[in-house]
Amino acid sequence: MRTKVAIIGSGPAGLLLGQLLTGSGVDNVIVERQTREHVLGRIRAGVLEKGMVSLLERAGCDARLHKEGLIHEGFEIADNDRRIHIDLKKLTGGDTVTVYGQTEVTADLMAAREQGSAQTFYSASDVALHDFDGASPHVTFTVDGQAHRLDCDIIAGCDGYHGVSRQSLPERSRTLYERLYDFGWLGLLADVPPATQELVYSRNERGFALVSMRSPTRSRYYVQVDTSEKVENWGDDRFWDELRQRVPADVAEHVTTGPSIEKSIAQLRSFVCEPMRFGRLLLCGDAAHIVPPTGAKGLNLAASDIHYAFEAIRDFLDNAGDGALADYSVRALTRVWKAERFSWWMTSVLHNFKDHSGFERRLQQAEMDYIFGSERGRAALAENYVGLPY
Ligand code: RFL
Ligand code: PHB
To answer: Could you tell me the CA-to-CA distances from 95 to 73, 74, 99, 379, 387 in Å, in that order?
Structure first.
């Protein structure tokens, strides 16, 4: 079997790249380890930057997003019982974000792919990447006991943090940068009306909490938990009690409780692999980097990678040569590091750190006082939150 671009992984990065390539007549095949149902069942991010919305428009996958997505002109930061409104629209000169679940983005992209003729292999095992340091890369994998070989011009490694693509790079050719945090987020999804109209990022002496949503009838909440915590220890009642203690009193009053549809713990991590290209292999999205979710950047960064990867692949196939692929890594990493910085900063100022000394706690308080007291401080926050330009 032969294609132009072999895409490893059918998360948002892989699916978006597939749609953009198909839309410009470039043949591509996706190879995914999980079943289609498993991919569609994952609950993850929920805030889309303008750049990601534009890419989904370009990919022709924006109809439901524009119908059901909620435009948010701002969000709130709480510091124990005080709150401040971050007016994104005013502070950025007109920019907003769209609240629309990653699960829905994935479903829309998959539906569009299934209407066309581009091929996807689900439930692929033993996925292996070969010869991407030369001119004839190929991918091998097994589906239903049958071995396949996919020859291609380029491999796009869109297979997430635990995928095979990054692990296929020779160790000496890449540098990994990592920061682990000593806490995670316990998330709960429930079909109850959200407590507030906008997101509330809440710093609290009991630990961080986030009030978020998917629609006027579906809420998404998070609380900071120890890395050793297990979901089984968190019955719904315990979660609701803890959440209400970590948000300002008037928000707590409006929390409607109900049975959870999903509950999971995500470990917080900052991670970057450099470079993001090796020969004919491009790493995109979580395969190349991870941010803690505090700045709502993970999914959006996967989208900006795809913007740069799509341009690089198109130029390469138009005979621009290897230089186009080298540019991909440089362009993507410049934006990646800015989002890493912002996500690290949001995480650092809003969470409780076990190893913080009194000095660091005072600095954290000073960061909060600065945001509460300075419109310019809030403008920098807003500029990063809505997403830096591509
Ligand atoms: P994904 O979504 O992880 O998709 C990768 C796909 O590759 C498949 N795969 C393989 N396929 C073939 N062969 C292999 N060997 C493979 N190994 C893996 C996987 O099954 C999967 O389908 O990466 P992508 O496309 O780069 O998208 C990135 C986003 O998903 C990610 O940045 C965000 O969801 C991060 N993230 C969050 N971001 C936020 O902004 N807000 C959040 O609340 C938030 N919550 C989360 C998250 C990530 C989580 N992960 C990765 C565990 C919660 C969790 C639990
Ligand atoms: C979410 O709704 O899942 C969400 C929103 C904002 C974040 C992280 C997660 O910063």
So the answer is: 8, 10, 14, 12, 9
